[in-house]
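Suppose you are handed only two things: the residues of a chain and a line of SMILES describing zinc ion. What would the bound structure be? This form records exactly that question and the answer produced for it, so the two can be stored side by side and reused later without any lookup.

QUESTION INPUTS
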Amino acid sequence: MDDTVEIAQSLIRIASVTPDDLGCQSLIADALASAGFEAEEMNFGDVKNLWLRRGDKRPLFVFAGHTDVVPTGPEDKWVHSPFSGDCVDGMLHGRGAADMKGSLAAMVTACQRFISSHPDHRGSIALLLTSDEEGPAVDGTVRVIDTLSARDEHIDWCVVGEPTSSRTLADTIKNGRRGSLGGTLTVVGRQGHVAYPHLADNPIHRLTLILSALAATHWDDGNEYFPATSFQVSNIAGGTGATNVIPGEACAQFNLRFCPDHTAQSLQEMIHTICRAHADEYRIDWSPIGQPYQTLPDTLLEAAVASVETVTRKRPTLSTDGGTSDGRFIAPSGAQVIELGPLNKTIHQVDEVVDASDLSTLSVIYEGILERLLA
Ligand SMILES: [Zn+2]
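ANSWER OUTPUT
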């Protein structure tokens, strides 16, 4: 079996459900020790992070990824047990096969081959590993980036191994992600009898006006790389349960996925303006904000596109859709950040699976990026 697939298999066999790492990171550190990578643990709370670096010069190229996986769901529904790492008919099965232990293995073998052919490469190479990407993402990548920034260690280029491909390997590179802004809106009215509405103030009526206005708002047109900002209501609650009572409060939860033409603050101001138009008294408890990021075509993106084109003979499309990723924590440090990994068809599902030969090809693509940037 190919080295990349073998490493991926060993990682899948470790049941590192978020935020556990259970030795995945040390397995990777061991695999790269003889290639000259120095390991530094950066653990915070329950979360294990590892910074593996070879060289002390700039430019600094980083592969970033997570060793934690999402829970399996009902294990008896899996055809191959979720931590078996079975490889059958060229398909590697198990939780994390695509998201993202396969990419981690491809990063390791890409580094090994690149370093053996270029032991004196320019700049430095590092791996940033965390066990807190699928969980709250509070003590993971963001803390490592803070630690690195505090000691003036700057990342120039970063490839995150999230599964970005949709139909064929490397058909899509993500060069940014939308931001996420959510909150709970509570409208305060005055409780009363439905037969005496002049003595009450119905917060449900006010809330529905606000939500309709928010849902009808044209926030922006998006830009060359980002779809238009979208607003969705996810939960709504109000009422005492009795049919003859106007309740005192009503609330709704909402989320916006936003294009970087906005800041979270500019959106918050727009939301407040709409709320004020329909309610005298309301409050919004904002959820933690997911900042957007975007990487414009430059050295890193050009190297990645060229490497993909050489290996697959197809030009990848650039995309910024999907949820958030740890790229949002790395980009603000000034690094160019892209995401490139295997097919995302089965991620987080029962029977997660990846084409084993795709992992070997991904490793060649990663090596091609290193060749173009650091050879
Ligand atoms: Zn992931």
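WHAT STANDS OUT: The chain has a mean pLDDT of 97. The chain has two domains: 3-177+292-374, 179-286.
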